[in-house]
User: What shape does this take?
Amino acid sequence: MKKLDLYVLKSFIRPLIPTLGIMVFFFLMQMVWKYVDDLAGKGIEWYVLLELLFYWAASVVPFALPVSVLFAALLTFGNFGEHYELAAMKGSGISLFRGIRSLIVLNIAIAFGAFYFYNNIIPVANLKGQSLLINISKSKPAFHITPGIFYNGFQGYSIKIGNKEGEGEQLLSDIYIYDHKEAKKGNLKVLVASTGIMRPVANDQYLEIELHDGATYEDIDRKFVEERQKMPWAQSEFDTAYLRFPLTNFSNADLYKTRRKDYMMMNTQQLKETADTLALQIIERQENFTKNLKGKYKFDYIDVASGNSVAIAKENVMSNLLSGMRIRASQNAIRLARSNLDYLKQMDREMNWRKETRMRHFLEYYKKFALGASVLIMFFIGAPLGSIIRKGGIGLPLVISTVAFLIFHILNTTFEKMGRELLLDPALAIWLPSLILAPIALWLTKSASSDTALVSGEWFSKILARINSKKS
Assistant: This one.
């Protein structure tokens, strides 16, 4: 029996390893093509780029592993069925479960290994990948500035360059810098220079641009209409000028172009602790909101004679005021109501953001456990389906595994999005795809163990007979 177990293991592992490598490469290329414009031609050393791809490759393993197990199971048992090896095992008195016992143990080990990898390796890889992107941005100041395209990464400025060259692409030419810090008035000031040098200074805290042979053009804003109609402007030329920008905003404009997803850099314990902290912050903000809002409404007035606070009858507040003060009180009440409405909308957006952030942490928490379950489910779909179809080769297993994985991926994406939008509980949103596919896996396994065809000719005959009887 040990020889049979070893043979089955070798037959499964042989297609699993290259399939996993191909799928990782496929998903990795999707990320590379997405950011190819940001990476190509930036003067990044090949080993730095290779390190970045290595970190990215770790993050796509959760997508590649389930489909690789599914394809390997389909291919292995399809070949077994086509070459009558399954029939030989059953003819020798070996049941299907006994024949795949070693694979069940292997896939359980893969499921636990997937959880460990997702929980301990991927967060570290995401953190190092993010840090590497920030280091690339700081070490190569021209990393994000593309010739011929306006760059708006610095608040209050728009930069356009004609070309960049030299070591680290720090030598710039045909430079236009538009100063629109006063956005309401438009672009009143522009700096033009023929050449320049871009470099980080002050321990990478600032980005300095040294401009050569340039000029400054500025529209002079006048208060009176008569003076504005003359459209006054000023011009000043310079041989050398310096501009400094803080690198905090520059380094944060990384390739993801979104806020840092810190929850992707945490293990289960850190996710749970952070989610609990976010829950306490939500409660604290709600209490502060209630306290602040209650303080805006006071139905008391100060008696001028005694100086004491006297309660006003809330049923008829306006009757306690002098006739000349009622209009002013009404206007103040309208302004206060509008202010409170804006405050309520702002707090509503903030609370939704806090709840969504907390939900993201819980979703990531449950995804780490669900990966192992998806590996087992895909195996128990692929193995019996391959033994029932009894078709070897790459073509049919590839088609079936692609369709099955697309269904699984669509279910995952749909329910996870519903969880992010607070429409589903996070545990239910992550586990629903597995709960939907698990009965299918059980049904396929039962059909394969009892040699039951999925769709028999007799089934078609019954359906046709029912259709003909209804027509007649």
Notes: Residues 88 and 298 are 88 Å apart (CA to CA). Strands lie at 157-160, 163-165, 171-179, 189-201, 206-219, 233-246, 300-302, 309-311.
